[in-house]
Write a structure and sequence with these properties.
Blueprint: E1 10-20, E2 23-34, E3 37-45, H1 50-67, H2 85-101
Length: 102
């Protein structure tokens, strides 16, 4: 059966950057795609500031519930577990992953 999503199955990873009140931060994202949908997600916090580290940890704990099972093109994260700025870094990494998976 041909894949209709336009994305390859497999594991893809990228880092995304965003600006917090404490400066530039980044977050690592690894997505596993199956038939164009997210079957697993892993987030690696790269925070350098304790407050950013807290928010990235909360984001990491809540992201799977929001995106696992969704088609890659349907995902646009705005806020996870009270962390809205981390979402910007996640979405940047997501765009890179989309390009890798084409």
């Amino acid at each position: 059966m041909a894949q209709t999503s336009g994305y390859k199955d497999g594991a893809f990873s990228a880092d995304g950057a965003y600006t917090s009140p404490n400066g530039q931060e980044s977050i690592g994202v690894q997505l596993t795609l199956t038939s164009g949908a997210v079957s697993a997600v892993e987030v690696t916090a790269h925070a350098t500031n304790p407050m950013s580290e807290k928010f990235q940890g909360e984001f990491k704990d809540g992201i799977a519930a929001q995106i696992v099972g969704k088609k890659l093109d349907e995902i646009k994260v705005t806020k996870v577990a009270g962390s809205s700025l981390t979402s910007g870094g996640f979405n940047q990494a997501l765009e890179t992953i989309k390009a890798q998976a084409k």
